[in-house]
Amino acid sequence: MKTKTSLRFAMLVGLAVVILLTAAAPFPGRGVSFATTDPVDLVRLTVENRTTGYMYMWLKGPQFYYLVIKPESISVFTIEPGSYYQTVRACGDTASKSINITTHTRQVMPVCGANAKNLTETGSAVYDLSNLIKIVRVTVDNESDTNLVAILTGPATYVFTVYENDANVYTIAKGKYQVQYWACGEYATRTWTAYSDAKLKLECPKK
User: Fold this and answer.
1) What fold does the segment set 135-202 form as a domain?
2) What is d(CA 55, CA 49) in angstroms, rounded to the nearest whole number?
3) How many C-beta atoms lie closer than 10 Å to residue 184's C-beta?
4) DSSP the chain
5) From residue 32, how far is each of 25, 35, 101, 183 by CA, in Å?
6) Per-residue pLDDT at 114
7) Environment class of residue 47 by beta-carbon count within 10 Å: exposed (0-12), middle (13-18) or buried (19+)?
8) Which pLDDT score is estimated for 117?
9) Domain boundaries, the chain
10) How far apart are alpha carbons 124 and 102 in whole angstroms?
11) Burial letters 153-167, b for 16+ CB under 10 A, else e
């Protein structure tokens, strides 16, 4: 009687061991992974858009980020620290540069054509994006006796319409442009460089 009881007990123990081993084994096709690295500490990126238009930013580096900042607003993002190739689009211009973002950082895009002054913030790196997006105020002067349409192609592309004997002030990206314009029923081209307070004078094209 004792032999049968011992045999029955041994079989129950063996069955329990088999069940426990089966439950602990991974399912077929599933691997076992272990955390081998610590999570990366993120840094804060604050972007202040003081313009009246949307601002777009791309960051390509340890990670890729596409950021959209609404007009006249401040947005706060958390990103992985490191070296990035940064592209910014604002005020009708697009420009890029390399930047190290290894600590809490604040970037300010001022009103188009202006500078962000007196930027100080304890414990953060602060950048004036007008040093990247170089916008200048210029005047397009129509000295013909008809309305004219001008297309400027260079650092950015612009299309302007100026009434006869009138002049308009615009803010555009600084740099050299190819100018195509129509006036007095004729078409002409020229090159022109935009800098602060530059004036583009357009007359009736010579036949």
Assistant:
1) Immunoglobulin-like (2.60.40)
2) 7
3) 17
4) -HHHHHHHHHHHHHHHHHHHHHHHSPPTT-------SPPPPPEEEEEEE-SSS-EEEEEESSSEEEEEE-TTEEEEEEE--EEEEEEEEETTEEEEEEEEE-S-EEEEE-STT----S---TTSEEEEGGGTS-EEEEEEEE-SSS-EEEEEESSSEEEEEE-TT-EEEEEEESEEEEEEEEETTEEEEEEEEE-TTEEEEE-PPP-
5) 10, 10, 35, 74
6) 83
7) buried
8) 74
9) 43-131, 135-202
10) 10
11) ebbbebebebeeeee
pLDDT at 9: 53
Q: Which CATH class is domain 43-131?
A: mainly beta
pTM given for the model:
0.67
Amino acid at 173: A
pLDDT of the chain along its 207 residues, tens only? 544 555 555 555 555 544 444 333 333 333 333 333 455 689 999 999 999 999 999 999 999 999 999 999 999 999 999 999 999 999 989 999 999 999 999 999 999 888 877 666 555 788 999 999 999 999 999 999 999 999 999 988 999 999 999 999 999 999 999 999 999 999 999 999 999 999 999 999 987
Q: Do 135-202 and 43-131 fall under one CATH topology?
A: yes
At which residue do the structure tokens 């309305």 appear?
147
